[in-house]
Amino acid sequence: MRTQLELVVIGTYAAALFVLSLFSLNRYVMISLFRRFRRLPRPGPPEPSQWPRVTVQLPVFNELYVAERLIRSACALDYPRALLQIQVLDDSTDETLALTQRLVRRYRARGIQIEHLHRTNRTGYKAGALAYGLERATGEFVAVFDADFVIPRDFLRRTVPYFSDARVGVVQARWDYLNEEYSLLTRVTALGLSGQFVIEQPARDRGGLFLTFNGTAGVLRASAIRDAGGWQHDTLTEDLDLSYRAQLAGWRIVYLPAMPCPSELPPDMHALKTQQYRWTKGSQETARKLIKPLWTAPIPVWQKLQGSAHLLGNAVYPFLLLVGLLNPVVMYIAHHDRVRISWPISAYFLLSLGGTFSYYAAAVKEIHPDWRRRMAYFPLFLAASIGLSVYNAQAAIEGLIGRRTPFLRTPKYNLTDARSRSTRRRRYRTAFTHSTVAELLLGTYTATAFLYAAFVGEWGALPFLLLFAVGYLLVGGYSIAHLVGTRGPRPQAEADPAISGTVVPAALDVRQVPQAMSRLLPLVLMALLLHCGGDRDAVVESDGAPDSAAAAVLPPGTVGVDSLPLVEKNANYEILPAGPGVARGMIWFRDTASTFDWRIRASGLTGGRAYRVQLTVDGHAFDVASARADYDGVLSAAGRLFTFKDHVCMGATSDAPVPIDGAHRIGIVIKDDGAARSGGGDGGGVTGARSGTAPCSGNGDGDFAARLSELRELQFTGT
User: What is the model's pTM?
Assistant: First the structure.
């Protein structure tokens, strides 16, 4: 009985490894196709004699931090205005709705054909919004961009000419990343996505295989959408679903690897898991829906095989999880029965791993001169893929069995690099899922097996066990770290009215965590240290008013108004030099006819410590507010300075009123202030410093009524 059970375990383990190796070995096929066609020129089509009408669709749902950036880039497209229609498909239920409405009115007043379409019934989520916009679209072609993308000015002029071929239904651009260097997590994520967008998509395109419209950064022929059956929302990946239906109907997809479109990677584990869950489950839902039509279609068997491998690619996660569960068991059996299988298993794993390594190495080398440095993250990428297998295995199984769940949006924060670390993620509270507990328990289980294997001398099993232990602990630790770093209301998953009995991924109340995780506290602390190391540099951030300037990186020193693409020209900006006890970074000013508004948010300060906020005008310093940083080291302040006869009148002591008009340098600095008294229980209050200066238009001291405003968009950074 014992021997039979052992054989079942080893057989199951070997079968799971074999399935994983098949998908890994298919990487060699993609590399071969890519290299075969890489050197073959693909001449671009000539510009059309008459440009067609294009509708740009911008689906938005509660995208407060990135909506303005998206709309601004759409309105800046280099395309004949008379032939361009822009649709803001805004299903938002928060402040984003008012922001997008205001932006649409502004750009419409400038002569741009832009309209705001708002649905109160979110049937079909993104697919429903796109279908709703398509009914009202006037363009022959439809360009789609998600909220986390920035549209290049020449995007339409470089993509639309490919539709001169009447068989082309979709033109897809390559994703690029604004925040690849933001953190270790984004670097690893970018590496993981590079294979698809640099190797697989071009290989499938040039090799005559089915490929994917990626849901954004692409242009579709409106007639092809309708011919394929339109946007459908019975899967979570409406883009993959439409892509295969369109190709089965005879339409071609053209992929342009030389047309990068910048986007934003998820900056925390919660956002990454949400994105991965949707992609994994949606792909398996699409496979369940379209595998049969694919195999009954009059296309070559090779296309059917590669299409099936493409659709079922995420089905590897249950097998990867199974391998992780059985690794310690197989190692124990091998040691107990003196069966030397650890070395053969490790060798087989490394052999199949070669395809995966070559796949990503070729991708990174193709677009990055420093590819060797970037490939150093490959072991972490493998580990993270293993750690995500817990969450993704659940998603894959749910997709294959047809369990319906709502569309979960990926939080987006408008963070570009490590200097722009922000507290805006607090707005999107992370839910503590059962998968996090499972990841940490599996990590402990595998780490224990690793120590046991080292103790008994099962050296061949050590690399395998170490990789899995690191993967589970890494993902679980990051999940806890990002849970601790968030506050605010927990996001509620909304049910699609078209789905009866909607089921959402299980979540735990954070109050249940202490008892369940008490034994894992050392591991959690280690993950927190990995996550937070180097992130506590003091940074001052703008809360970004809608009328503020476009994002820009400022060098130290003074920047004049004519050197930036400002919406409002009546402003000067300065990044103050760093010094002991001085936080520096982003600021925002707006000078109107009678007031001078300022806002500031600083992070990386000492929690609970008192600070004073100073405004400087051409070297004159004025204490305008005092505050106490909250427990996370975050301080927010805002104020309004009333001007009188071109002079600033503020609630602080000054030798003489200082002219604001014509000032060469204006800045805000935060310094330690042990005497400051404010903040209340949460440290968020701001108190105006009063002094006895001359009244401003009978208003007494300057009005420094401050507010804790939510960040809207990162505006300016200094180094």
Answer: 0.68
